[in-house]
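Posting for a labmate who doesn't have an account.
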Amino acid sequence: VQLVESGGGLVQPGGSLRLSCAASGLTFSMFAMSWYRQAPGKERELVAAIGSAAGSTTYADSVKGRFTISRDNAKNTVYLQMNSLKPEDTAVYYCRAQGLGVIRGLDYWGQGTQVTVSS
């Protein structure tokens, strides 16, 4: 199983980025997908999550109204659209896949992609 994040980089405050996480080696539609982030010296935190059918989403209060999580089951990819970025959004962003139903307990992480918000 591989989860490969991309789309990170350096952006000015107020700017936008779209992160992608391409999954392989798993039945993508059977996994809930989520994005986490970890800033230096801080614990990893949940940013956004989406159910298998894309109808159920949840967001951290700090990103509500600015970030949008989505998934394309045909492409085995989950996205995180990040708008109105703030310096406090600077972190390494990780993709996570958690199995549902009969495969509950399967849990995979990507390697992370750096997002830096700075002028």
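Reply:
Got it, the structure tokens are right above this. The CA atoms of residues 67 and 107 lie 23 Å apart.
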